[in-house]
Amino acid sequence: RKEVEQDPGPFNVPEGATVAFNCTYSNSASQSFFWYRQDCRKEPKLLMSVYSSGNEDGRFTAQLNRASQYISLLIRDSKLSDSATYLCVVILNDYKLSFGAGTTVTVRA
Amino acid sequence: SQTIHQWPATLVQPVGSPLSLECTVEGTSNPNLYWYRQAAGRGLQLLFYSVGIGQISSEVPQNLSASRPQDRQFILSSKKLLLSDSGFYLCAWSLQGRSPLHFGNGTRLTVT
Fold this sequence. Notes:
The complex is a heterodimer of chains A (about 110) and B (about 110). Chain A has strands spanning about 5, 10-15, 20-25, 30-40, 45-50, 55, 60-65, 70-75, 85-90, 95-100, 105-109. Chain A has about 110 residues and is mostly beta strands. In chain A, a hairpin with a 2-residue loop joins strand 6 (about 55) and strand 7. Chain B is an all-beta fold. Chain B is built from no helices and 11 strands. In chain B, the strands form 2 sheets. In chain B, strands 2, 4, 5, 6, 9, 10 and 11 form a 7-stranded mixed β-sheet that branches. Chain B has a 4-stranded antiparallel β-sheet with strand order 1-3-8-7, with no helix packed on it. In chain B, about 35% of the residues are buried. Classes of the chains: A mainly beta (about 110), B mainly beta (about 110).
């Protein structure tokens, strides 16, 4: 079983729609969680951290479900510029990070 | 603020030639440093990480090596490139502890 698994998508949504997707992790001892955004042929960039209580940053909402071992990302009012691949990252300890393979989101006009 | 510089941005090298990619971080001390590779359409593969000068951990056996001659300098090398070494190489840093990674702009390597 992979340490971190994501639905690769693609999720094709119209502008203004809401899109949500999950990332499951296998190690219950995982400590920290993040979402990254990667544009085509670019480096991943930190989108947001994921806190136990759930957190929001503008149109983006991240949640953590420790019992079921997944994190989620919800994007409201999708913009064309939200088209990207979204990577989840799970940190087990100080150096052990695991990246998901990414979920591709395409927002169409 | 912290910045990370990685160069070159693009590189085309023949099979069997050597490789040296360099990465430097500014604005922080004693960062964790990482080298990742991303093949076309694939996820990120951790190659090496370092928690201090001269301390290198290898995640995947291959013909690549890494060195950290200074606190904020991380170098990825190869004596003889293979076709399979083609990919997008990313350097990243993080603070000590369970902190997120911050990536450089990457080097797109094509081995011909």
